[in-house]
Amino acid sequence: MTTVYLPDAVYADGALKPGALLVSDDGVVLPASASREGARVVPMPGRVLLPGFVNGHSHAFQRIIRGRTEFLAAGHERDDFWSWREAMYAAATALDPEQLYAVSKQTFLELALAGVTTVGEFHYVHHQPDGTPYADEHELAKQVVRAARDVGLRIALLRVGYARAGFNVEPNPRQRRFLDPDVETLLRRTHELRAQLAKDPLVTVGLAPHSVRAVPRDWLEVIGRMWVDGPLHMHVAEQPAELRACGAEYGLRPVELLDEVGLLGPRF
After folding, report:
1. What digits encode the pLDDT tens for the residues 194-218?
2. DSSP state of 211
3. Which residues of 205-214 are buried (b: 16+ CB within 10 A; e: fewer)?
4. pLDDT tens-digit series, residues 119-138
5. b/e code 75-103 from CB counts within 10 Å (16+ = b)
């Protein structure tokens, strides 16, 4: 059954206009010219209808550290990105699939209540705590997608590629859940996840090389050639230390590097 919502105005084509919003029984917005015969009518006096907001870059699991890092720890004269990251690693290494689902659902519910209807989830917790894949390599990604769809959000699952701790940085055991062994595996897993989730029109799978510190140039070059469909998303430069490291490794700033390897464009 079609539902006809009758607010005072609807935001469309860049302006607020008198009108109605018609929605099919499966949640699809219909043209204003669609038949209203037998429709359910919902009066909404004193209200306007706006498009839902989009959260383009979410880390849902970090909901569990909210309020735990916005202070100066004992012995620290100042807090910074790196001290925050220690709390994030502790959370990332602790969650099992059901816990990840629960915290993601909490995050997405709060987004929905704030008017967000679409989320881009920058998802990088892929494997078991020791770094070995789950029997279903996509177990954790599917839990995040399930949480979003159970709440009613559209989701772009941005599957993150992570290769290393950084330029001339020793491997970090707390990043074991993030890592793919090579760029070919990253691409294979992302394509597989996309195929497995393709039936839901409200789910998109994109590829997200984490950053220039976590993904080396040879991976970025392959991604630039081989990832031809879907969104491409990235942390470009999170703090000044990343600018210095990129300059030391490549003689370029991050955006210059991404342009040189062919990543910048309409999908990025």
Report:
1. 999 999 999 999 999 999 999 999 9
2. -
3. bbbbbbbbbb
4. 999 999 999 999 999 999 99
5. eeeeeeeeeeeeebbebbeebebeebbbb
d(CA 231, CA 158): 8
Distance from C-alpha of 157 to C-alpha of 206, rounded to nearest angstrom:
6
Q: Would you give the DSSP letter of residue 265? A: S
Q: Whole-number mean pLDDT of the chain?
A: 93
Q: How far is CA 48 from CA 20, 23, 42, 51, 223, in A?
A: 10, 16, 13, 10, 43
Mean pLDDT of 125-154: 97
Read off the tokens for 114.
């704030």
Instruction: Report d(CA 33, CA 125) in Å as an integer.
Output: 45
Which run of H or of E encompasses 22? strand 21-23
In the structure encoding, which two tokens stand for residue 253, read together? 């700033």
**Residue the block writes with tokens 């989730």:** 197
Distance CA 175, CA 131 (A): 8
The C-alpha atoms of residue 193 and residue 103 are separated, in whole angstroms, by 21
pTM exceeds 0.85, yes or no: yes
C-alpha–C-alpha distance, residues 67 and 199, integer Å: 37
